[in-house]
């Protein structure tokens, strides 16, 4: 009786086939990581821009509606945006603060505080904010003297 150890009926993979498969998977994963990081950074930027624009618009609407008979504004802090009630951030009522988290990979520079007047919704200061991501991609938000937010 002869064994068929090395016959044509063997099933399985050789060591060479396994190593080649692992190498191909490693190359594909290595090429995919930078692409994923770029997409993640772009997504973080989009979220930060959208969050900031929405916060400005909400503060403006609350001021126009004279919510709680006061003005509303937005303050930038590292890592988050604060929607606040009051004439300025220092004199605000912290019970009404709304904190919006922004991705830590985004840096914001420019006008740190924007407060909107009651009834009119016109900002007390117009300004420009620049958002910069880790890979130096930038977006600019501008709020003009009429209160329009452009980005």
From TrEMBL:
It comes from the Bacteria. It comes from Candidatus Kerfeldbacteria bacterium CG08_land_8_20_14_0_20_43_14. The keyword Membrane applies. It holds the Pfam family N_methyl. The keyword Membrane applies. This is General secretion pathway GspH domain-containing protein. The chain crosses the membrane at residues 12-36. Keywords: Membrane, Transmembrane, Transmembrane helix.
């Amino acid at each position: 009786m002869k064994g068929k150890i090395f016959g044509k009926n063997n099933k399985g993979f050789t060591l060479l086939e396994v190593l080649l498969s692992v190498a191909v998977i490693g190359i594909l994963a290595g090429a995919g990581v930078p692409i994923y990081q770029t997409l993640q950074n772009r997504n973080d930027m989009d979220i930060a821009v959208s969050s900031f624009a929405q916060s400005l618009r909400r503060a403006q609407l609350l001021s126009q509606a004279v919510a709680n008979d006061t003005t509303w504004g937005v303050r930038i802090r590292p890592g988050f945006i604060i929607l606040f009630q009051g004439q300025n951030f220092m004199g605000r009522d912290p019970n009404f603060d709304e904190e919006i988290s922004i991705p830590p990979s985004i840096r914001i520079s420019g006008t740190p505080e924007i407060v909107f007047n009651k009834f009119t919704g016109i900002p007390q200061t117009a300004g420009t904010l620049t958002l910069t991501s880790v890979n130096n991609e930038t977006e600019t938000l501008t709020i003009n003297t009429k209160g329009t937010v452009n980005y």
